[in-house]
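Page 42, continued from yesterday. The earlier attempt failed because a stray header line got pasted into the input along with the sequence. Redoing it now with the clean sequence only.
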Amino acid sequence: VGVCKQEMLQKKNAILVDGVILNGPIMDSKAGEKFVEEACKIIMEEIIQKADDVTEKVCEWQAPEALKQILDLEMKDTGESNQKLLQLCRDVIQYSVKTSHPRFFNQLYAGIDYYSLVARFITEALNPSVYTYEVSPVFLLVEEAVIKKMIEFIGWEEGDGIFNPGGSVSNMYAMNLARYKFCPDIKEKGLSGLPRLVLFTSEECHYSMKKAASFLGIGTENVCFIKTDERGKMIPEELEIQVQRARKEGSAPFLVCATAGTTVLGAFDPLDKIADICEKYGLWLHVDASWGGSALISRKHCRLLHGIHRQVQLPLPFSVYKFCRADSVAWNPHKMLLAGIQCCALLVKDSSGLLKKCYSAKAAYLFQQDKFYDVSYDTGDKSIQCSRRPDAFKFWLMWKALGTTGLEERVNRALALARYLVDEIKKREGFQLLLEPEYANVCFWYIPPSLRKMEDGPEFWQKLHQVAPIIKERMMKKGSMMLGYQPHQGKVNFFRQVVISPQVSREDMDFLLDEIELLAKDL
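This time it went through. C-alpha coordinates are written below.
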Protein backbone atom coordinates (compact mmCIF):
# COMPACT_ATOMS: atom_id res chain seq x y z
CA VAL A 1 0.00 0.00 0.00
CA GLY A 2 2.87 2.39 0.86
CA VAL A 3 4.54 1.75 -2.52
CA CYS A 4 1.26 2.39 -4.37
CA LYS A 5 0.78 5.63 -2.46
CA GLN A 6 4.29 6.76 -3.37
CA GLU A 7 3.66 6.00 -7.05
CA MET A 8 0.40 7.97 -6.96
CA LEU A 9 2.13 11.00 -5.46
CA GLN A 10 4.73 10.95 -8.22
CA LYS A 11 2.03 11.21 -10.89
CA LYS A 12 1.14 14.60 -12.30
CA ASN A 13 -1.89 16.36 -10.87
CA ALA A 14 -1.96 14.16 -7.79
CA ILE A 15 -4.53 15.50 -5.32
CA LEU A 16 -3.93 15.06 -1.61
CA VAL A 17 -6.66 16.00 0.91
CA ASP A 18 -6.18 15.38 4.62
CA GLY A 19 -3.38 13.00 3.74
CA VAL A 20 -5.60 10.98 1.42
CA ILE A 21 -4.80 10.62 -2.30
CA LEU A 22 -7.93 11.15 -4.37
CA ASN A 23 -6.60 10.27 -7.82
CA GLY A 24 -7.86 6.98 -9.24
CA PRO A 25 -9.34 4.00 -7.42
CA ILE A 26 -7.54 2.49 -4.44
CA MET A 27 -8.84 -1.01 -5.11
CA ASP A 28 -6.94 -3.43 -7.34
CA SER A 29 -9.76 -4.69 -9.55
CA LYS A 30 -7.67 -7.29 -11.35
CA ALA A 31 -6.55 -8.87 -8.09
CA GLY A 32 -10.13 -8.78 -6.82
CA GLU A 33 -11.45 -10.46 -9.96
CA LYS A 34 -8.79 -13.15 -9.64
CA PHE A 35 -9.76 -13.75 -6.03
CA VAL A 36 -13.44 -14.09 -6.94
CA GLU A 37 -12.55 -16.51 -9.74
CA GLU A 38 -10.47 -18.71 -7.46
CA ALA A 39 -13.05 -18.57 -4.66
CA CYS A 40 -15.81 -19.58 -7.09
CA LYS A 41 -13.70 -22.57 -8.11
CA ILE A 42 -13.50 -23.62 -4.46
CA ILE A 43 -17.26 -23.19 -4.06
CA MET A 44 -17.90 -25.33 -7.13
CA GLU A 45 -15.48 -28.08 -6.12
CA GLU A 46 -16.13 -28.22 -2.39
CA ILE A 47 -19.84 -27.43 -2.14
CA ILE A 48 -21.77 -27.75 -5.38
CA GLN A 49 -20.05 -30.81 -6.86
CA LYS A 50 -20.19 -32.61 -3.50
CA ALA A 51 -23.78 -31.64 -2.67
CA ASP A 52 -25.28 -35.08 -3.38
CA ASP A 53 -22.25 -37.20 -2.46
CA VAL A 54 -23.29 -39.44 0.43
CA THR A 55 -19.68 -40.50 1.01
CA GLU A 56 -18.90 -36.98 2.22
CA LYS A 57 -19.49 -36.05 5.85
CA VAL A 58 -22.52 -33.98 6.77
CA CYS A 59 -20.38 -32.16 9.28
CA GLU A 60 -16.78 -32.13 10.54
CA TRP A 61 -17.46 -31.70 14.23
CA GLN A 62 -15.15 -29.55 16.33
CA ALA A 63 -15.74 -28.18 19.83
CA PRO A 64 -16.12 -24.36 19.91
CA GLU A 65 -12.70 -23.58 21.41
CA ALA A 66 -10.92 -25.88 18.97
CA LEU A 67 -12.80 -24.39 16.03
CA LYS A 68 -11.84 -20.86 17.11
CA GLN A 69 -8.19 -21.83 16.83
CA ILE A 70 -8.59 -23.54 13.47
CA LEU A 71 -10.36 -20.57 11.89
CA ASP A 72 -8.06 -17.81 13.15
CA LEU A 73 -11.01 -15.51 13.84
CA GLU A 74 -9.09 -12.42 14.96
CA MET A 75 -9.24 -9.37 12.68
CA LYS A 76 -5.80 -7.74 12.33
CA ASP A 77 -4.55 -4.23 11.57
CA THR A 78 -3.12 -5.29 8.23
CA GLY A 79 -4.84 -7.36 5.60
CA GLU A 80 -3.93 -10.94 4.78
CA SER A 81 -2.86 -12.42 1.45
CA ASN A 82 -5.36 -13.82 -0.99
CA GLN A 83 -3.87 -17.27 -0.56
CA LYS A 84 -4.48 -17.10 3.19
CA LEU A 85 -8.03 -15.89 2.54
CA LEU A 86 -8.69 -18.72 0.10
CA GLN A 87 -7.49 -21.20 2.71
CA LEU A 88 -9.88 -19.59 5.19
CA CYS A 89 -12.66 -20.11 2.65
CA ARG A 90 -11.75 -23.79 2.45
CA ASP A 91 -11.71 -24.04 6.24
CA VAL A 92 -15.09 -22.38 6.55
CA ILE A 93 -16.57 -24.84 4.05
CA GLN A 94 -14.90 -27.84 5.67
CA TYR A 95 -16.16 -27.11 9.17
CA SER A 96 -19.63 -25.88 8.23
CA VAL A 97 -22.65 -28.17 8.22
CA LYS A 98 -23.46 -29.35 4.70
CA THR A 99 -27.18 -28.62 4.58
CA SER A 100 -27.32 -29.75 0.96
CA HIS A 101 -26.16 -33.25 1.95
CA PRO A 102 -28.83 -35.93 1.31
CA ARG A 103 -28.53 -37.02 4.94
CA PHE A 104 -29.07 -33.63 6.54
CA PHE A 105 -32.51 -34.06 8.15
CA ASN A 106 -32.06 -31.69 11.06
CA GLN A 107 -34.23 -28.68 10.16
CA LEU A 108 -37.20 -27.58 8.08
CA TYR A 109 -34.88 -26.73 5.20
CA ALA A 110 -32.36 -28.86 3.32
CA GLY A 111 -30.95 -29.61 -0.09
CA ILE A 112 -29.73 -27.43 -2.92
CA ASP A 113 -31.57 -25.93 -5.85
CA TYR A 114 -29.13 -24.88 -8.54
CA TYR A 115 -31.37 -22.23 -10.11
CA SER A 116 -32.03 -20.58 -6.78
CA LEU A 117 -28.32 -20.71 -6.06
CA VAL A 118 -27.47 -18.89 -9.28
CA ALA A 119 -30.12 -16.29 -8.46
CA ARG A 120 -28.41 -15.72 -5.12
CA PHE A 121 -25.05 -15.33 -6.83
CA ILE A 122 -26.58 -12.68 -9.10
CA THR A 123 -28.21 -10.70 -6.30
CA GLU A 124 -25.08 -10.87 -4.15
CA ALA A 125 -23.03 -9.51 -7.05
CA LEU A 126 -25.54 -6.76 -7.87
CA ASN A 127 -26.11 -5.91 -4.19
CA PRO A 128 -29.55 -4.35 -4.69
CA SER A 129 -31.99 -3.03 -2.12
CA VAL A 130 -35.66 -3.45 -2.88
CA TYR A 131 -37.47 -0.27 -1.93
CA THR A 132 -37.79 1.97 -5.00
CA TYR A 133 -38.16 1.24 -8.68
CA GLU A 134 -35.34 3.60 -9.56
CA VAL A 135 -32.72 1.52 -7.73
CA SER A 136 -34.28 -1.94 -8.09
CA PRO A 137 -36.53 -2.02 -11.19
CA VAL A 138 -36.13 -5.70 -12.07
CA PHE A 139 -36.45 -7.10 -8.57
CA LEU A 140 -39.52 -5.04 -7.67
CA LEU A 141 -41.31 -6.36 -10.76
CA VAL A 142 -40.18 -9.90 -9.94
CA GLU A 143 -41.51 -9.60 -6.39
CA GLU A 144 -44.82 -8.30 -7.68
CA ALA A 145 -45.12 -11.24 -10.11
CA VAL A 146 -44.24 -13.85 -7.47
CA ILE A 147 -46.65 -12.42 -4.90
CA LYS A 148 -49.41 -12.38 -7.50
CA LYS A 149 -48.80 -16.05 -8.31
CA MET A 150 -48.69 -17.09 -4.65
CA ILE A 151 -51.97 -15.25 -4.08
CA GLU A 152 -53.50 -17.29 -6.91
CA PHE A 153 -52.63 -20.50 -5.09
CA ILE A 154 -54.04 -19.14 -1.86
CA GLY A 155 -57.26 -18.36 -3.69
CA TRP A 156 -57.84 -14.67 -3.26
CA GLU A 157 -59.06 -12.78 -6.29
CA GLU A 158 -56.64 -10.00 -5.35
CA GLY A 159 -54.39 -9.12 -2.46
CA ASP A 160 -51.08 -7.70 -1.37
CA GLY A 161 -47.85 -8.94 0.14
CA ILE A 162 -44.19 -8.49 0.84
CA PHE A 163 -41.12 -10.68 1.29
CA ASN A 164 -39.61 -10.60 4.78
CA PRO A 165 -36.48 -11.88 6.53
CA GLY A 166 -38.11 -14.98 8.01
CA GLY A 167 -41.48 -16.44 8.91
CA SER A 168 -41.11 -15.02 12.42
CA VAL A 169 -41.08 -11.52 10.94
CA SER A 170 -44.07 -12.36 8.73
CA ASN A 171 -46.01 -13.43 11.81
CA MET A 172 -45.06 -10.21 13.56
CA TYR A 173 -46.17 -8.20 10.53
CA ALA A 174 -49.51 -10.00 10.55
CA MET A 175 -50.04 -9.43 14.27
CA ASN A 176 -49.31 -5.73 13.95
CA LEU A 177 -51.48 -5.46 10.84
CA ALA A 178 -54.40 -7.13 12.62
CA ARG A 179 -53.99 -4.71 15.53
CA TYR A 180 -53.86 -1.73 13.15
CA LYS A 181 -57.03 -2.93 11.43
CA PHE A 182 -58.71 -3.27 14.83
CA CYS A 183 -57.50 0.15 16.02
CA PRO A 184 -55.96 2.40 13.33
CA ASP A 185 -55.20 5.17 15.82
CA ILE A 186 -52.51 3.04 17.44
CA LYS A 187 -50.02 3.96 14.73
CA GLU A 188 -49.91 7.59 15.87
CA LYS A 189 -51.27 7.54 19.41
CA GLY A 190 -49.64 4.37 20.67
CA LEU A 191 -50.90 1.92 23.28
CA SER A 192 -52.32 4.43 25.74
CA GLY A 193 -56.08 4.29 26.02
CA LEU A 194 -56.42 0.90 24.36
CA PRO A 195 -58.36 -1.93 26.00
CA ARG A 196 -56.51 -5.11 26.88
CA LEU A 197 -55.89 -6.73 23.50
CA VAL A 198 -55.93 -10.53 23.39
CA LEU A 199 -54.88 -12.90 20.62
CA PHE A 200 -55.37 -16.64 20.30
CA THR A 201 -53.12 -19.32 18.92
CA SER A 202 -52.52 -23.01 19.43
CA GLU A 203 -50.24 -24.39 22.11
CA GLU A 204 -48.33 -25.97 19.20
CA CYS A 205 -47.77 -22.63 17.45
CA HIS A 206 -44.35 -21.32 16.50
CA TYR A 207 -42.60 -19.48 19.32
CA SER A 208 -42.46 -16.35 17.17
CA MET A 209 -46.05 -15.57 18.15
CA LYS A 210 -44.99 -15.13 21.76
CA LYS A 211 -41.96 -13.06 20.73
CA ALA A 212 -44.09 -10.87 18.47
CA ALA A 213 -46.54 -10.16 21.29
CA SER A 214 -43.66 -9.13 23.50
CA PHE A 215 -42.00 -7.01 20.81
CA LEU A 216 -45.23 -5.20 19.89
CA GLY A 217 -46.12 -4.37 23.47
CA ILE A 218 -49.17 -6.63 23.54
CA GLY A 219 -47.59 -8.75 26.24
CA THR A 220 -47.06 -12.48 26.42
CA GLU A 221 -49.74 -12.81 29.10
CA ASN A 222 -52.24 -11.66 26.48
CA VAL A 223 -51.45 -14.56 24.18
CA CYS A 224 -54.06 -17.22 24.86
CA PHE A 225 -52.73 -20.65 23.94
CA ILE A 226 -55.53 -22.95 22.86
CA LYS A 227 -55.44 -26.63 23.70
CA THR A 228 -54.66 -29.12 20.95
CA ASP A 229 -55.79 -32.67 20.35
CA GLU A 230 -53.57 -35.75 20.37
CA ARG A 231 -52.36 -34.93 16.84
CA GLY A 232 -51.33 -31.37 17.72
CA LYS A 233 -54.30 -29.62 16.08
CA MET A 234 -56.05 -26.67 17.68
CA ILE A 235 -59.42 -27.62 19.19
CA PRO A 236 -61.99 -25.15 17.75
CA GLU A 237 -64.42 -25.61 20.64
CA GLU A 238 -61.67 -24.57 23.06
CA LEU A 239 -60.95 -21.53 20.92
CA GLU A 240 -64.54 -20.35 21.07
CA ILE A 241 -64.68 -20.86 24.83
CA GLN A 242 -61.57 -18.71 25.29
CA VAL A 243 -62.83 -15.98 22.96
CA GLN A 244 -66.08 -15.79 24.93
CA ARG A 245 -64.19 -15.76 28.22
CA ALA A 246 -61.94 -12.91 27.09
CA ARG A 247 -64.92 -10.82 26.01
CA LYS A 248 -66.72 -11.39 29.31
CA GLU A 249 -63.60 -10.24 31.16
CA GLY A 250 -63.67 -6.98 29.22
CA SER A 251 -60.69 -7.78 27.01
CA ALA A 252 -60.64 -7.10 23.28
CA PRO A 253 -59.96 -10.19 21.14
CA PHE A 254 -58.56 -9.16 17.77
CA LEU A 255 -56.56 -12.00 16.23
CA VAL A 256 -56.48 -15.77 15.82
CA CYS A 257 -53.32 -17.37 14.47
CA ALA A 258 -53.86 -20.86 13.09
CA THR A 259 -50.96 -23.06 12.02
CA ALA A 260 -50.68 -25.02 8.78
CA GLY A 261 -47.79 -27.36 9.49
CA THR A 262 -46.54 -27.15 13.07
CA THR A 263 -42.80 -27.24 13.64
CA VAL A 264 -42.49 -30.52 15.54
CA LEU A 265 -45.46 -32.70 14.62
CA GLY A 266 -46.34 -31.16 11.24
CA ALA A 267 -49.98 -30.70 12.29
CA PHE A 268 -52.53 -28.67 10.34
CA ASP A 269 -55.16 -26.84 12.36
CA PRO A 270 -58.82 -27.31 11.30
CA LEU A 271 -58.96 -24.09 9.35
CA ASP A 272 -62.59 -24.33 8.31
CA LYS A 273 -63.96 -24.38 11.84
CA ILE A 274 -61.47 -21.77 13.02
CA ALA A 275 -62.49 -19.49 10.15
CA ASP A 276 -66.15 -19.87 11.17
CA ILE A 277 -65.32 -18.68 14.69
CA CYS A 278 -63.30 -15.74 13.37
CA GLU A 279 -66.18 -14.65 11.17
CA LYS A 280 -68.64 -15.04 14.04
CA TYR A 281 -66.64 -12.82 16.41
CA GLY A 282 -65.06 -10.45 13.90
CA LEU A 283 -61.46 -11.61 14.41
CA TRP A 284 -58.57 -11.36 11.99
CA LEU A 285 -57.48 -14.83 10.89
CA HIS A 286 -53.78 -15.24 10.23
CA VAL A 287 -52.49 -18.61 9.05
CA ASP A 288 -48.86 -19.40 9.76
CA ALA A 289 -48.23 -21.67 6.79
CA SER A 290 -44.50 -21.05 6.84
CA TRP A 291 -43.88 -24.79 6.75
CA GLY A 292 -47.08 -26.24 5.32
CA GLY A 293 -47.99 -23.58 2.76
CA SER A 294 -46.10 -25.34 -0.02
CA ALA A 295 -48.67 -28.14 0.06
CA LEU A 296 -50.88 -25.70 -1.85
CA ILE A 297 -48.72 -26.38 -4.91
CA SER A 298 -49.70 -30.07 -4.87
CA ARG A 299 -53.07 -31.18 -6.22
CA LYS A 300 -52.73 -34.31 -4.09
CA HIS A 301 -51.81 -32.67 -0.78
CA CYS A 302 -53.43 -29.22 -0.92
CA ARG A 303 -56.33 -30.80 0.97
CA LEU A 304 -54.17 -30.43 4.09
CA LEU A 305 -55.11 -26.75 4.03
CA HIS A 306 -58.80 -27.30 3.39
CA GLY A 307 -61.32 -25.20 5.21
CA ILE A 308 -60.42 -21.70 4.27
CA HIS A 309 -60.67 -22.62 0.65
CA ARG A 310 -63.21 -22.92 -2.08
CA GLN A 311 -62.84 -25.16 -5.10
CA VAL A 312 -61.83 -23.11 -8.10
CA GLN A 313 -61.22 -24.49 -11.56
CA LEU A 314 -57.91 -23.34 -13.02
CA PRO A 315 -56.66 -23.88 -16.56
CA LEU A 316 -55.59 -27.46 -17.09
CA PRO A 317 -53.77 -29.38 -15.74
CA PHE A 318 -54.45 -27.71 -12.40
CA SER A 319 -57.59 -27.72 -10.31
CA VAL A 320 -56.60 -26.86 -6.77
CA TYR A 321 -58.17 -26.03 -3.48
CA LYS A 322 -58.11 -22.32 -2.80
CA PHE A 323 -57.20 -20.62 0.43
CA CYS A 324 -59.89 -17.92 0.67
CA ARG A 325 -61.00 -17.19 4.20
CA ALA A 326 -57.75 -16.13 5.86
CA ASP A 327 -56.93 -12.45 6.19
CA SER A 328 -53.18 -13.09 6.01
CA VAL A 329 -50.84 -15.99 5.35
CA ALA A 330 -47.15 -16.55 6.07
CA TRP A 331 -45.51 -18.89 3.54
CA ASN A 332 -41.79 -19.78 3.36
CA PRO A 333 -40.68 -21.16 -0.03
CA HIS A 334 -37.21 -21.69 1.41
CA LYS A 335 -38.50 -24.69 3.32
CA MET A 336 -40.26 -27.42 1.32
CA LEU A 337 -39.61 -25.80 -2.08
CA LEU A 338 -35.84 -25.21 -1.57
CA ALA A 339 -35.80 -21.56 -2.63
CA GLY A 340 -32.82 -20.96 -0.33
CA ILE A 341 -32.69 -19.16 2.99
CA GLN A 342 -34.23 -16.78 3.34
CA CYS A 343 -37.35 -16.63 1.19
CA CYS A 344 -40.46 -15.78 3.18
CA ALA A 345 -43.64 -14.02 2.12
CA LEU A 346 -46.46 -12.41 4.05
CA LEU A 347 -49.57 -12.41 1.89
CA VAL A 348 -52.57 -10.25 2.76
CA LYS A 349 -56.11 -10.54 1.45
CA ASP A 350 -56.73 -6.79 1.67
CA SER A 351 -56.09 -4.88 -1.55
CA SER A 352 -56.99 -1.40 -0.33
CA GLY A 353 -53.44 -0.54 0.72
CA LEU A 354 -53.79 -1.61 4.36
CA LEU A 355 -50.23 -2.93 4.44
CA LYS A 356 -48.81 0.39 3.30
CA LYS A 357 -51.10 2.43 5.56
CA CYS A 358 -49.95 0.42 8.54
CA TYR A 359 -46.21 0.60 7.89
CA SER A 360 -45.50 3.65 5.77
CA ALA A 361 -43.38 6.51 7.09
CA LYS A 362 -43.31 8.49 3.80
CA ALA A 363 -39.59 9.22 3.90
CA ALA A 364 -39.20 12.21 1.59
CA TYR A 365 -35.67 11.31 0.50
CA LEU A 366 -36.85 7.95 -0.89
CA PHE A 367 -40.52 8.11 -1.74
CA GLN A 368 -40.87 11.42 -3.55
CA GLN A 369 -44.26 11.73 -5.21
CA ASP A 370 -43.06 13.87 -8.15
CA LYS A 371 -40.77 11.27 -9.74
CA PHE A 372 -40.81 10.84 -13.50
CA TYR A 373 -42.24 7.29 -13.31
CA ASP A 374 -45.23 5.56 -11.69
CA VAL A 375 -44.41 5.77 -7.98
CA SER A 376 -46.86 3.00 -7.13
CA TYR A 377 -43.91 0.72 -7.91
CA ASP A 378 -41.97 2.19 -4.99
CA THR A 379 -43.23 -0.52 -2.65
CA GLY A 380 -40.59 -0.25 0.04
CA ASP A 381 -42.82 1.80 2.32
CA LYS A 382 -44.90 -1.33 2.96
CA SER A 383 -41.95 -2.73 4.89
CA ILE A 384 -40.59 -2.01 8.35
CA GLN A 385 -37.16 -2.32 6.76
CA CYS A 386 -35.36 0.23 4.65
CA SER A 387 -32.70 -1.92 3.00
CA ARG A 388 -34.33 -5.17 1.91
CA ARG A 389 -32.98 -8.14 0.01
CA PRO A 390 -34.55 -9.30 -3.30
CA ASP A 391 -35.55 -12.66 -1.87
CA ALA A 392 -38.36 -13.21 -4.36
CA PHE A 393 -35.87 -13.44 -7.24
CA LYS A 394 -34.46 -16.84 -6.26
CA PHE A 395 -37.97 -18.27 -5.99
CA TRP A 396 -38.90 -16.71 -9.33
CA LEU A 397 -35.89 -18.11 -11.21
CA MET A 398 -36.43 -21.54 -9.69
CA TRP A 399 -40.15 -21.45 -10.56
CA LYS A 400 -39.31 -20.37 -14.12
CA ALA A 401 -36.89 -23.29 -14.41
CA LEU A 402 -39.06 -26.03 -12.90
CA GLY A 403 -42.56 -24.79 -13.62
CA THR A 404 -45.43 -25.41 -11.27
CA THR A 405 -45.36 -29.10 -12.17
CA GLY A 406 -41.74 -29.36 -11.04
CA LEU A 407 -42.51 -27.70 -7.71
CA GLU A 408 -45.51 -29.99 -7.27
CA GLU A 409 -43.30 -33.01 -7.89
CA ARG A 410 -40.97 -31.91 -5.08
CA VAL A 411 -43.82 -31.76 -2.60
CA ASN A 412 -45.30 -35.08 -3.70
CA ARG A 413 -41.96 -36.89 -3.59
CA ALA A 414 -41.03 -35.54 -0.17
CA LEU A 415 -44.30 -36.76 1.32
CA ALA A 416 -44.00 -40.11 -0.48
CA LEU A 417 -40.54 -40.61 1.04
CA ALA A 418 -41.96 -39.75 4.47
CA ARG A 419 -44.64 -42.41 3.95
CA TYR A 420 -41.97 -44.94 2.93
CA LEU A 421 -40.00 -44.19 6.11
CA VAL A 422 -43.11 -44.63 8.25
CA ASP A 423 -43.77 -48.04 6.69
CA GLU A 424 -40.15 -49.12 7.30
CA ILE A 425 -40.28 -47.93 10.92
CA LYS A 426 -43.32 -50.13 11.49
CA LYS A 427 -41.41 -53.15 10.22
CA ARG A 428 -38.35 -52.74 12.43
CA GLU A 429 -38.00 -53.88 15.99
CA GLY A 430 -37.07 -51.11 18.39
CA PHE A 431 -38.60 -48.25 16.39
CA GLN A 432 -41.86 -46.71 17.59
CA LEU A 433 -43.87 -43.94 15.94
CA LEU A 434 -45.36 -41.18 18.05
CA LEU A 435 -48.23 -40.81 15.61
CA GLU A 436 -49.09 -41.25 11.96
CA PRO A 437 -47.76 -38.14 10.20
CA GLU A 438 -49.87 -36.09 7.82
CA TYR A 439 -46.96 -34.10 6.41
CA ALA A 440 -43.19 -34.58 6.12
CA ASN A 441 -42.49 -34.68 9.88
CA VAL A 442 -41.84 -38.26 10.99
CA CYS A 443 -41.55 -38.47 14.79
CA PHE A 444 -40.35 -41.66 16.44
CA TRP A 445 -38.46 -43.22 19.32
CA TYR A 446 -35.65 -45.72 19.03
CA ILE A 447 -35.73 -48.24 21.87
CA PRO A 448 -32.36 -50.00 22.21
CA PRO A 449 -32.27 -53.75 22.95
CA SER A 450 -31.52 -53.22 26.65
CA LEU A 451 -34.87 -51.45 27.16
CA ARG A 452 -37.16 -53.58 25.02
CA LYS A 453 -38.15 -56.00 27.77
CA MET A 454 -38.45 -53.32 30.43
CA GLU A 455 -41.88 -52.59 31.85
CA ASP A 456 -43.56 -49.36 30.77
CA GLY A 457 -43.15 -46.96 33.67
CA PRO A 458 -41.25 -43.91 34.94
CA GLU A 459 -37.86 -45.67 34.92
CA PHE A 460 -38.35 -46.85 31.33
CA TRP A 461 -39.22 -43.37 30.07
CA GLN A 462 -36.40 -41.80 32.07
CA LYS A 463 -33.90 -44.13 30.42
CA LEU A 464 -35.45 -43.70 26.96
CA HIS A 465 -35.16 -39.93 27.39
CA GLN A 466 -31.36 -40.32 27.37
CA VAL A 467 -31.16 -42.38 24.18
CA ALA A 468 -31.74 -39.76 21.47
CA PRO A 469 -29.13 -37.26 22.78
CA ILE A 470 -26.45 -39.96 22.87
CA ILE A 471 -27.25 -41.12 19.33
CA LYS A 472 -27.26 -37.50 18.15
CA GLU A 473 -23.82 -36.89 19.65
CA ARG A 474 -22.43 -39.98 17.99
CA MET A 475 -23.83 -39.19 14.54
CA MET A 476 -22.51 -35.62 14.75
CA LYS A 477 -19.00 -36.70 15.73
CA LYS A 478 -19.02 -39.38 13.05
CA GLY A 479 -20.47 -36.96 10.50
CA SER A 480 -22.74 -39.62 9.01
CA MET A 481 -26.01 -37.67 9.19
CA MET A 482 -27.90 -35.04 11.17
CA LEU A 483 -31.28 -35.72 12.71
CA GLY A 484 -33.11 -33.56 15.22
CA TYR A 485 -34.61 -34.63 18.54
CA GLN A 486 -36.64 -32.97 21.28
CA PRO A 487 -39.00 -33.60 24.18
CA HIS A 488 -42.50 -32.35 23.48
CA GLN A 489 -45.74 -31.86 25.42
CA GLY A 490 -44.77 -34.29 28.18
CA LYS A 491 -43.21 -36.87 25.87
CA VAL A 492 -39.55 -37.79 26.39
CA ASN A 493 -36.91 -37.12 23.76
CA PHE A 494 -37.78 -38.46 20.33
CA PHE A 495 -36.39 -38.03 16.83
CA ARG A 496 -38.04 -35.75 14.29
CA GLN A 497 -37.06 -36.68 10.76
CA VAL A 498 -37.99 -34.21 8.04
CA VAL A 499 -37.93 -35.07 4.35
CA ILE A 500 -37.44 -32.11 1.99
CA SER A 501 -34.53 -32.38 -0.40
CA PRO A 502 -35.03 -33.89 -3.88
CA GLN A 503 -31.49 -35.28 -3.49
CA VAL A 504 -32.84 -37.66 -0.82
CA SER A 505 -33.56 -41.21 -1.96
CA ARG A 506 -35.17 -44.33 -0.61
CA GLU A 507 -31.66 -45.59 0.15
CA ASP A 508 -31.13 -42.62 2.45
CA MET A 509 -34.27 -43.55 4.40
CA ASP A 510 -32.92 -47.07 4.85
CA PHE A 511 -29.51 -45.71 5.86
CA LEU A 512 -31.09 -43.49 8.51
CA LEU A 513 -32.68 -46.45 10.29
CA ASP A 514 -29.60 -48.66 9.86
CA GLU A 515 -27.33 -45.93 11.20
CA ILE A 516 -29.45 -45.37 14.30
CA GLU A 517 -29.30 -49.08 15.05
CA LEU A 518 -25.54 -49.08 14.53
CA LEU A 519 -24.89 -46.04 16.71
CA ALA A 520 -27.07 -47.38 19.52
CA LYS A 521 -26.05 -51.03 19.49
CA ASP A 522 -24.23 -50.78 22.84
CA LEU A 523 -26.82 -48.68 24.70
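Notes: Residues 310-322 have pLDDT under 50 and may be disordered.
Reminder to self: strip header lines before submitting.
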